[in-house]
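Feature request, filed as a ticket because there's no other form

It would be nice if the structure record came with a short human-readable summary line next to the tokens. Right now we just get the raw output. Example of a typical job, pasted below so the devs can see what we mean:
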Amino acid sequence: MKNFHLPLPEQTYKGLRAEAERTGVPATALAREAVDWWLRQQGRKARHDAIAAYATEMAGTRLDLDANLESAAIEHLLNTSKATK
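Raw output as currently delivered:
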């Protein structure tokens, strides 16, 4: 574990302390969980953005999604959606 000094705005500090008291979980554990969650979200967003950029760049090239495969996937999604309703 590494320590990290993080000054917080008064309102954020009070909210964190109140939540820690309400749940009986140390404020440091709550803050660590929040930072971990945010970092995971950032990783997911970066991955999504990279995939979207690649798809945009490859659109219309031989590496673009096969039209027959795309049609089959859309048909499958539509049929699956109807079956679950």
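Something like this underneath would help us a lot:
DSSP finds three helices and no strands in the chain.
Helices lie at 10-23, 27-58, 67-84.
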